[in-house]
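Pipeline run #58 for the internal structure catalog. This entry was flagged by the ingest filter as a single-chain record with no existing model, so it goes straight to prediction. Upstream metadata was stripped on purpose; only the residue string is passed forward. Reviewer on rotation: M.T. Logging verbosity set to normal.
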Amino acid sequence: MIGPREVPRLWDRHLVNSGVVVPRLPAGATVADVGSGAGLPGVVWAIARPDLKVTLIEPLLRRTTFLQEVVDELELANVEVLRARAEDVDRQFDVVTARAVAALEKLAKWCMPLVAPGGVLLALKGQSATDEVKDAKRTLGRLGATATLIRTYGDVEIPTTVVEVSK
């Protein structure tokens, strides 16, 4: 589910990058991972935090088949795989996340309707986070964002930049 050039960077660029955000997640939260792909960060979060209820939202059949095999093999009782586009999901979650899916403005249109009142969108971003927040400011306001923060998790060698949008 990841490209062949990514294998040498699997640990730091993908797994650690996802895992360093785990302390930010509220206890017992419902989580939606939009465009879950290979299960990052959703599967990592579900393994690290069995108290979470994680829904992996992915529209492509081959990816949802892979994700279900991972969930079954790892016996992750706290994970649901949902084959759907985010805009077709009629539920809300305490935390909605996405990693490497789309620019924040487009991502917000898909994800903010899934964020429950008082919840948060945690968009895992890179160095483009500041520019993406500027570009999406009006859209975020229209979608009910009450606050937007850019936070860095992890250390200097393996930073994970997250745009946190509260609702």
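catalog note: The helical segments are 10-19, 42-48, 61-73, 104-111, 129-142.
catalog note: The chain is about 30% helix and 30% strand.
status: ready for reviewer M.T.
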